[in-house]
Amino acid sequence: MLHTYRGKEIMAYDEPYWIGGVGLIGGTAGTDAVQQAELLVMLGTDYPYVDFLPKHGNVIQVDERALAIGRRAPVKLGVVGSVRPTIRALLERLPQRTDTAFLDRAQERRAAWDRMLDERADPARAGDKIHPQAVARAVSDRAATDAILVTDTGEVTLWAANWLRQTGRQRITGSFNNAAVGTGMGIANGAQLLDRQRQVILHVGDGGLTMLLGEFMTAVEHELAVKVVVYDNSGWGLVHLEMEGAGLPAAKGTGFPNLDFAAFARACGAQGFTARDADALDATVAEFLAVPGPAILHALVDPAEVPAMPHVDAKQALRFGIAKVRELIGR
Ligand SMILES: Cc1ncc(C[n+]2csc(CCOP(=O)(O)OP(=O)(O)O)c2C)c(N)n1
Ligand SMILES: [Mg+2]
Hints:
- The protein is of the alpha/beta class.
- It folds into 2 domains: 2-108, 3-Layer(aba) Sandwich (Rossmann fold); 122-326, Rossmann fold, CATH 3.40.50.
- The protein has helices at 28-36, 83-93, 101-120, 132-142, 155-162, 184-194, 206-211, 214-221, 237-245, 261-267, 281-290, 314-329; strands at 40-43, 59-63, 77-80, 148-151, 171-173, 200-205, 227-232, 271-275, 295-300.
- Helix 5 links the parallel strand 4 (148-151) and strand 5.
- Helix 4 (132-142) packs across helix 11 and helix 9 (237-245) crosses helix 12 (314-329).
- The protein starts with 27 loop residues before the first helix and ends with a helix.
- Bound molecules: thiamine diphosphate and magnesium ion.
């Protein structure tokens, strides 16, 4: 079983049948399994990144929205209906399988991917700046087991998504639509307003938070105990990366100066924390999550860190290399 990012909340990270996500906010195990499976069953998903879906047509798709059937990949059987009763009816008819070869292979790939995630999240790797993966992992490991996790858009989505070890009882939400940078703070406020008892954590980039900074004051005004983790890489990280992926050196304007987000939180009458020391990261995250009201954790992260992609093709790697050389020689 694998999932899109939106579906990650459904199963716990330590569930053995869960082999991870598909596509850029996923891993190799899930991405390969989709390509190599004889039959793909798509349940309630309108996953738009068609390059990661099979073209062979051996797909069963179940969705309440008829318009989603066959929209992203050719399907052999489309079922317009709800997932739960459909799956129940299907399972009754399926014989129990004993051959676990496909699952074994997927689990091996998943174990290798997980080891890579653990290595990159190790705070000991930090130089003068913390790695964003370490921040995401520390927050994940300290989050309430039923927390609501909101993610804004950017490289921050990749850190928050890939390094999260979800419990299966947490909720994962965000806009997940195009042109949605900056929506996270409002979404987090809304989620907290619906349930004041539940922990709400927002992962947001410095660009995304700065775009709608005033929304933090809404949290203060309405006493919404939202916990904001801001990943400060001094720039529009994903845009920078996309430019490099196209072979272009990052243009002036993809970077910008930042305010002191922890001081800003205090100026708003909330609490502010700064994470710049890897040794203190875990303790700072714990303290930040424990305060009763709204709070910001300003994490100074290494801007040079590149997200883990399940499959980067040779052309992409070459263009990235060219961009890096052009940045070095200043052209
Ligand atoms: C409203 C809006 N404007 C612009 C974009 C294009 N965009 C996608 S990711 C991104 C960078 C976001 O930067 P930041 O919030 O600092 O996160 P980072 O990528 O650095 O982690 C931008 C500008 C968008 N998706 N939505
Ligand atoms: Mg940024």
